[in-house]
Specification:
Elements: E1 2-6, E2 26-33, E3 42-48, E4 54-57, E5 59-61, E6 64-70, E7 86-96, E8 102-103, H1 114-117, E9 129-133, E10 137-139, E11 144-151, E12 160-165, E13 174-176, E14 178-180, E15 183-189, E16 195-196, E17 201-210, E18 216-217, E19 231-234, E20 239-244, E21 254-261, E22 265-273, E23 287-288, E24 295-297, E25 306-313, E26 318-322
């Protein structure tokens, strides 16, 4: 009578991929009976939690009939640390005891399957790319943004992925080669002219990613989850235009309107300056203004002085502009 299925192989630790079994590894499959077996006994079993590989058990040691399952791949075994290798069914058998009593069929004993007696995990499934990420923020030319690819399992040193991003029209290839457990990272250094409201990986150029058992991912299929919104790349400075400039002649009051063309504004300020060179001035005590909001000047205090403006966007790009004429208020 068939009593159990077991194995002489070491158990797998779900938290240690090195203890799992991959392509080329051999696993001993044993069928244990209640009495010694005669020479010539044989059994074929189909394994569960693999590609349903069939294994012939035709080696005899006392009451044990055994054979060897050689793991093949890829996709011959699942990567699920909660499911152990098991026998799905007995395909065929011709087993004799020493008195030549022959048995030609048998069921798997309840509670005595291979998975009941051993914790053997077969993993021939490549890693799966789950998502891309980057730290939210506002980035300017010269800034470095770390892009990270996230996988569903630990990957080996030497794994790499190369991508393009949407901020430069897919011109540059970003090399991601820094491995940390189940992630691979690499720097994207923002270049002048790179601009996008929400940075995304636009395509995968190539990847060669292996897990601990040397299952390799090489496709260029994008994951369902891209970089979250909030990573702004902005290398374009604001454009300042005096749409209603300072009058050229004396006036009792002077209404000035300044337009700032910028989709990511941070601050707009102005000061009074003895000359029209604005980018060397101190704006610590400057007055804030709104784009296209008229400002009326009526005091003679700042006559002969130009209006110098400074505009800064959220990525730190700065622009400066001066009025065409100095103020000339005559009350």
């Amino acid at each position: 009578v068939l009593q159990s299925f077991t194995s002489s192989n070491a158990n797998s630790d779900p938290d240690d991929p090195l203890t799992m079994y991959g392509t080329g590894d051999t696993i001993n499959i044993q069928a244990v009976f209640n009495e010694n077996l005669a020479s010539g006994s044989t059994m074929t079993v189909e394994l569960e939690n693999t590609a349903r590989s069939q294994v012939v058990l035709n080696q005899i040691s006392g009451s044990t009939l055994y054979g060897t399952y050689t793991v093949s791949g890829p996709h011959d075994g699942i990567s699920d640390d909660s499911i152990d290798l098991a026998v799905r069914r007995v395909v065929s058998m011709s087993v004799s005891d020493l008195a030549t009593n022959v048995k030609s069929s048998e069921s798997i004993p309840t509670g005595q399957n291979l998975s009941d007696n051993k914790d053997i995990i077969v993993d021939t499934v490549p890693p799966s790319l789950q998502s891309f990420s980057a730290t939210a923020g506002n980035y300017n030319a010269g800034d470095s943004i770390t892009l990270t690819a996230h996988y569903n399992k630990s990957v080996k040193a030497g794994s790499n992925i190369h991508v393009k991003v949407n901020s430069d029209g897919g011109t540059a290839t970003i090399d991601m080669t820094t491995v940390s457990t189940s992630t691979i990272s690499g720097p994207y250094v923002v270049q002048s002219g790179d601009n996008v409201q929400n940075l995304k990986v636009s395509s995968i150029v190539s990847q060669a990613v292996s897990d601990i058992k040397n299952n390799q991912l090489t496709d260029t299929i994008m994951p369902s989850t891209n970089i979250s919104d909030g990573v702004l790349v902005d290398t374009t400075a604001p454009v300042i235009t005096f749409t209603n400039d300072v009058d050229s002649g004396p006036t009792q009051s002077d209404e000035v309107t300044i337009n700032v063309s910028e989709i990511n504004p941070s601050s707009h300020k102005y000061i009074f300056s003895a000359d029209n060179v604005c980018n060397t001035k101190n704006y610590t005590s400057a007055t804030s203004f709104g784009s296209d909001t008229p400002i009326t000047f009526i005091a003679e205090t700042n006559n002969t002085k130009y209006i110098c403006t400074k505009s800064v966007d959220t990525a730190g790009n700065e622009s400066y502009a001066a009025s065409a004429n100095p103020l000339n208020i005559d009350i």
